[in-house]
Design brief:
Distance between the termini: 5 Å
Order of helices and strands: EHHEHEEHEHEHEHHEHEH
Strand content: 5-15%
CATH class: Alpha Beta
Shape: globular
Number of strands: 9
CATH architecture: Alpha-Beta Barrel
Radius of gyration: 17 Å
Number of domains: 1
Helix content: 40-55%
């Protein structure tokens, strides 16, 4: 039996004709261990349902991120504040973003990101919190986003050189940008501290009508020795509870 846990990103499934309390309790009953990126005012409700909070945003802004020096002081302050919150509420990871390129070269973006992250990492390490930079596609959903390949993200991990800075490997986004998902997981999994799923094309459910073979991907993640969360982040086409249940069992069956 795999020790991998499953979570779901709140923004995808909320506000779809299911009350928050009903959605949280249903997810817990299905077997989910955690919810991600849920509003702070709902954290007590999530905990009452038996769900942990797996991730929250570490700082404001996907586009205005760590790659610009003028954002450095603001983001460092936001990260420190959110690290304290994460400790209090037992949240293991904060999501970070590179920001858009807007003319910044990949080399310059790496340097700018690493300088700010190196200043904050001792604080994160002492707190036991992991900062995870999300890999996003710049082709469809996030034009000009800089951390858009696993190679760039891995270089950043190497420059920061801390076990508490890793990547959020979003399978949907990286299928769009580079494919070769299973090989990348096998070769680069030490740099991946969290995974997100969605079908491609269209970011829909994990079905046979999209191009990613998720059972094989789940097995590859398990074979890497990973013991964290696989977070579902697809847009449901119907009832969110039913689709979360299908995704949960697809993953669970692959990990048996």
């Amino acid at each position: 039996m795999s020790s991998i846990k499953q979570s779901f990103s709140w923004w995808c499934y909320a506000d779809r004709a299911v009350a928050p309390q009903d959605l949280l309790h249903a997810a817990a009953k299905i077997g989910y261990a955690a919810v991600e990126m849920i509003e702070p005012e709902l954290w007590p409700m999530a905990h009452e349902a038996g769900l942990e909070i797996a991730t929250i945003s570490g700082h404001h802004g996907i586009d205005e991120g760590l790659n610009r020096p003028e954002n450095s002081e603001r983001i460092e302050q936001e990260l420190r504040k959110n690290i304290d919150i994460a400790v209090k509420y037992r949240i293991p990871a904060l999501i970070c973003f590179s920001g858009k390129r807007e003319g910044i070269s990949d080399a310059e973006g790496l340097e700018n990101c690493s300088e700010t992250l190196k200043r904050i990492m001792p604080y994160a390490e002492q707190a036991g919190i992991t900062l995870i930079m999300e890999l996003l596609n710049s082709k469809v959903n996030h034009p000009d986003y800089q951390c858009d390949t696993s190679a760039w993200g891995i270089q950043l991990c190497q420059k920061v050189d801390s076990p508490h800075f890793r990547l959020l490997y979003d399978i949907y986004h990286m299928q769009i940008m580079e494919g070769d998902i299973i090989r990348t997981i096998g070769e680069s999994h030490p740099y991946f501290a969290h995974y997100h799923t969605a079908g491609n094309p269209g970011r829909g459910p994990l079905s046979e009508e999209q191009e990613l073979n998720y059972p094989a991907i789940f097995k590859a993640i398990a074979q890497s020795g990973y013991t964290g969360y696989i977070g579902h982040e697809f847009i449901p086409e119907g009832n969110p509870i039913q689709e979360l249940e299908r995704a949960y069992h697809l993953c669970e069956d692959a990990l048996k």
